[in-house]
Here is the input.
Amino acid sequence: MAHGEAKEADIGIAGGIKEGLLFKKGEVIKKVPQEKIVEVLKEEILKMI
Here is the structure.
């Protein structure tokens, strides 16, 4: 997801080299190591519901 598209998303990950950026409501929340992207994304989604 490109940063511009992330502005419209409730939550998302923009992938990079060996890391991803976690976005929430268009804001970068944190950098996440590649091996933890799925785990962190799941945790954040569960917090939202």
Remarks:
- Residues 3-48 form a domain with the Sulfite Reductase Hemoprotein; domain 1 fold (CATH 3.30.413.10).
- The first helix runs from residue 3 to 6.
- The two ends are 22 Å apart (CA to CA).
- The longest strand covers residues 27-33.
